[in-house]
Amino acid sequence: MTTPIIEMRGIMKRFGAVQALNNVNFHLMPGEILGLVGDNSAGKSTLMKVMTGAYQRDAGEVLVNGEETHFRSPHESRDRGIEMIYQDFALCGNMDVGQNIFLGRWPRRFGLFVDRPKMYEEARQVLGRLKVDVNSVFQKVESLSGGRQQSVAIARAISFEPKVIIFDEPTANLSVMATERLLETMAELKRQGVAQVIISHRLTDIFEVGDRIMVLKRGENVGDRYIAHTSEKEVLELIVSGTPDTALTADEALKQAA
Amino acid sequence: MMASETSSAPAGALKTGDFANVGRAAWWQRGFFASQTAYVAAALIAIVIVMALMSPAFLSAGNVANVAKNFSFIGIVTLGMTLVIVTGGIDLSVGSVMALSAIACAMAMQALASTGLAGVPFATMTLAIAAGLGVAVLVGLANGLLVARVGLSPFVTTLGMLSIARGLAYAVTEGRGQTPAGPDLDAFYAFTDGTILGVPMAVIYLLGLAAILGVVLHHTAFGRHVFALGGNEKAAALTGISVERVKVSVYVLCSLSAGFAGILMTGWLGSAPANLATGYELTIIAAAVIGGANLAGGIGGPAGAVIGALLIEVIRNGLVLAGINAYWQIVLVGMIIILAVLVDRLRSGRAA
Fold this sequence. Notes:
The structure holds two protein chains of two kinds.
Chain A: E1 6-15, E2 18-28, E3 33-37, H1 44-52, E4 59-64, E5 67-69, H2 74-79, E6 82-85, H3 97-101, E7 108-109, E8 113-114, H4 116-130, H5 146-159, E9 164-168, H6 176-191, E10 195-199, H7 203-209, E11 212-217, E12 220-226, H8 232-241, H9 250-257
Parallel strand pairs in A: 3-10, 3-11, 6-9, 9-10
Antiparallel strand pairs in A: 1-2, 1-4, 4-5, 7-8, 11-12
Chain B: H1 36-54, H2 61-86, H3 94-113, H4 123-150, H5 154-173, H6 185-193, E1 195-196, E2 199-200, H7 201-219, H8 221-231, H9 233-238, H10 243-269, H11 280-290, H12 302-321, H13 327-351
Antiparallel strand pairs in B: 1-2
């Protein structure tokens, strides 16, 4: 069996009186698209933020390619190839597409001046690789629609050449067309070998591109399933009435069904 | 906003594909020409023409030099203020810093005049100016650290500093104006209040600093960081920009511009009174806003700062020449602030 690109074991995280994550296990295989679902406050975003180092875990292990890690901030996990795309995209609306893609790490001349021609050229290359629909690297980001702003955020993420991309509620504010395009982009990234986690309430989207779906409930595992061997109905049942005691992993569920 | 945010390079050979309906705006609808700064520049030219027609004295060499010098002090600080405003902050302490730096400079010159350094050419002047600027840096550092590291609101922090710096200015002088003195007095006046080829030094400093700021803001990584901070501070931090360092830097630079302008005013007035530049912070913020700096952050530039400061002075001067009560100037400046922002709102509303 291949080593998961990310594995988390026994993750505990408490915010004051709330046990946000209780003994959560998680794994992500190279090139896999994993849907992470659950009701509000199930701990989906918290688990991902523990993974990137945005939050510090109270207990448990985070392994990248089998090596234990202790990321103190998202910058450190970025160095190991993990990128998170936030719900609000984290873009600077007053700056253009090219500058946003390389926000804070623009190519420089003499270490001091921003090398604009090189920046725009590299921005075009990144956008080309993504096959997205931003028509000019000179457009101001605030003049773009939500879907295109997201494309810029994705372009920035892939410019770091990540192995793993986490999408936090990527389709929440997108039109039907933009959602379709995003799912195509995710499939394209998968072809390029990028593992992805998609946090979403929209099961339809996950069933369209995902390989596996994992359900959290009140900070605990209630099971995961292979998309090819499950249905939206079964996943909904897990979300509503799953318990940690009855949780089956995708492989266990597959064996039981056989 | 300065030109070239969106217009500096050719669009290149990007495939437009399905997006053939998205073209580039006409040249007069993008970049500098689409900015509030351009509208205000046009208004400024119109006002100058009207003033010149109404009063022949307006364009006389003497009056032009007078206007140029008067607006330069405000303009220099407006450059620094613009930098702070672009990051989404504000600095209310600049007027007080002008006074405190001017006083520190004058008092240092007096004190050094009786030391052994008096024999060294330009030593007392250089050290006195350094003392004045040093005080400004300290105030800016205090502002910046309180805002960036402690996380206090810029408005409240610098409002407190306005009072502290002004209070110190009165306390150390006991309310008496300080006169520069010592062996370098002539050099000091030449440096602060002289002319080169008939152009007042203050104007030369203003234009020089504006040019430097333009290059820094638009072509250096630091300048881009300033804009990124004003656009989305959280995003800037997430991508690894040292938000704290950039913020402290802009408050220090703003304070430094105020200190420098205060020292120049000392040369102009021949004295550093404790009430120097009282209330200037509002004129300076007004100049920045009229010139197109957006108090919400992310937009602004040196051209706007210079044009905004010049517009206010031209109106003030014009009303004086026209024999209109000087108090109306204050009313008019207020109306222009609102008008400038209103025109920009109407224009961008139409463009959207």
